[in-house]
Amino acid sequence: MPQFLHLTDDREIAMIRKNGIKAHEIRGRESKGVYATPVLQDYYRSHQWLRELRRSGIKLISAVQFRADDEVPVTIGRFNKEPLETTAAEAVRIFMEHDTGMGLEVIFPESILASSITRIYTPDQVVGWRYYPESHSDGRKPCGCPYCQRGQIKNRKLREADRDG
Fold first, then answer.
1. What is the per-residue pLDDT across 56-81, written as a single tens digit (0 to 9) for each?
2. Would you say which domain of life the source belongs to (predicted)?
3. Domains in the chain: ranges and CATH
4. What does the alpha-carbon distance between residue 106 and residue 100 come to, in Å, rounded to a whole number?
5. Which end of the chain is more exposed for a tag (fewer CB within 10 A), N or C?
6. Are the beta carbons of 16 and 64 closer than 8 angstroms?
7. DSSP state letter for 21
8. How many angstroms separate the CA atoms of 135 and 22, rounded?
9. Contact between 16 and 8 (Cβ < 8 Å)
């Protein structure tokens, strides 16, 4: 039975303990789901989304670890590409065999029951990537234009660099 990790705002933990993880609207689609990554030996890959999620203004992110049956239908894919429909066990295999695994996400189409939750903890808050998975390796700076930075917190330096450059 594979284990998965869902990152969420620490303020939602009391409700999650009681009711489980509710499926929310999936961006760009008409369906609902729960975002997750497999629990792997590589801590960084399992928690890669943490810094990107913190950009939305969440002060403290908690990790909710849960168990899923091997045959549960899920989708897996890179955040900005078309996902592949598969099973939970196959999603873990795909994640492990992917060259880096950065930017991959698993989406469960149903809410996660509270009885499936095995652990809730607060991970290190500086793990992961920001803006996009290759942001530290390709040397490009994030776009500082008002369109790309709308609604982003702490973006003054990016906007000023874009205006000056």
1. 778 899 999 999 999 999 999 887 77
2. Bacteria
3. 3-127 (3.20.170.30), 140-165 (no CATH)
4. 15
5. C
6. yes
7. B
8. 31
9. yes
